[in-house]
């Protein structure tokens, strides 16, 4: 069965990546594209300044962009992907869910709400059960699932592997984040070339809260957030794609570099079309992973880890993921695949 899907915010940085992921997808067929009033009524080719590193799919280029309004999206669309600015998502996403649509969203609004599943399918697919809670509490006919922020997705699978094996107590992380994470209008060349910006508004709090929810336990009614203390420092650097992060993870049990590498390599993936066979690749070379060399492994859906060292209270390591694929569009598509697999479509 092919599922007819729509993309809200289809012309933006994440929207274009969504189209790149969905167009060849075995289970999804693109049926609706929305954006702001500046794009409405135009062909997608005209409305989107296509910047993705593969040609714009011909059949998509000729589609007409419609308003981001439930009345404008055909009723036979079963699944929506949202890559709207969070302020817009906060206002319009509930309108779509109330109208009965099932949505997999990138936008940061509602991510830490108690009844909204925030999922990385390889880590916490069971949290999808919150959909029943949200339907009960909000009276929604549709369903809303969120993927986390791009910098959070990069570190959480390695943290989940270490938590499962050795117990996490404290996490500190410092990021080196690519410019695509800010969207097309995010940082200007005059700001970022020959520079690093030691502030990304709201990002630290997102990493500190979303990671604890993702690593939490779902008891059938609510998610008990993980007790680990998480502290983040977020920095923008002049790479195009790929967030690199330096992580210090304190553990309840003593752990050697070899034991950590084994736990990371053996952390299981999930059997969904977009999920890599091996979720976490561990590099032996101390200078890897690097954004330019390693962001595209497993079609941009892999998590790379390297530089593992023992510390007084646990471990230090570096991790990397492609921020607009694994950290955004690919993450949403994977959640869409999970919704299909679990019978929500
Ligand atoms: N970039 C990343 O790596 C990344 C990672 C994770 C999550 N996210 C999240 O994903 C979302 C999108 O980010 P982005 O980087 O793709 O942003 P972006 O490049 O600025 O794109 C925003 C999209 O939303 C549309 N839009 C803007 N205002 C609208 C309105 N009032 N009504 C309807 N549509 C509107 C835009 O349409 P027009 O072209 O017509 O203006 C465009 O399609 C954000 O919530 C962001 O936080 C981004």
Automatic annotation (TrEMBL):
Gene Ontology MF term list: aspartate-semialdehyde dehydrogenase activity; NAD binding; NADP binding; protein dimerization activity
Keyword Hydrolase set for record: no
Domain Semialdehyde dehydrogenase NAD-binding stretches: 4-131
Active site as annotated: 150 (acyl-thioester intermediate), 243 (proton acceptor)
Keyword annotations of the record: NADP, Oxidoreductase
Biological process annotations from GO: methionine biosynthetic process; threonine biosynthetic process
Top-level division of the source organism's lineage: Archaea
Protein name: Aspartate semialdehyde dehydrogenase
Organism: Halorientalis persicus
